[in-house]
Amino acid sequence: SDEGDADGTASGGCGEQWIIDDDGVANAPDTCMAWSPRSDFMMGWKEAASIEEGEEGGCGSDCPEEDSAYCASLGSLGGRSDWRLPSKQELMDAAKTNTENMTDVDGKLWSRDTDATAPGNAWTVSLGSAGAYFSMDKDDGSTWVRCVSEG
């Protein structure tokens, strides 16, 4: 086991547990990826995803029409400015870490990824259910958002 540094993180990494800063930004162990607090309201995928994020996730014929992405609205939260919608895999990987130190882990979260077998759907992942994933209609407004930043 690594010796802890003065700030409680393991040497050479980002600690062994989630660390929440004063802005509510959660820093993931191992990957050092920052996760925004969960959105204050639920929304549809096209409100959550930017055009670029949708294209990264393979939106094909059902991409966001306007670039009004939720993650862009976070501005410089936590001193970061590169907030984006996470991929399905990033959400699933985060769910496998020790998320009990994170707040608001219940409920499904939008990923940027479109379901290749149903282009009108995007993938959602539940952090609180060990990364269970669901294909949901992109217009379904009953899903939360958490954005990620790689710093």
What would your notes on this structure say?
Mean pLDDT is about 85; it is low at about 1-10. The protein is an alpha+beta fold. The strands form two sheets. It has a four-stranded antiparallel sheet, with no helix packed on it. It has helices at about 45-50, 50-55, 90-95, and strands at about 20, 25, 35, 110-115, 120-125, 130-135, 150. A hairpin with a 5-residue loop joins strand 1 and strand 2. It has three helices and seven strands. About 10% of the residues lie in helices and about 20% in strands.
Strand order within the widest beta sheet: 1-2-3-7
Strand content: 15-25%
- How far is it from the N-terminal to the C-terminal residue, by CA? 26 Å
Number of strands: 7
Low-pLDDT segments? 1-12
Give the radius of gyration: 15 Å
Number of helices: 3
Mean pLDDT: 85
For the biggest sheet, the summary is: 4 strands, antiparallel
The backbone outline, from C-alpha atoms, is globular
What string gives the helices and strands in order? EEEHHHEEEE
* Secondary-structure content class: alpha+beta
Q: What proportion of the residues is helical, as a percent range?
A: 10-25%
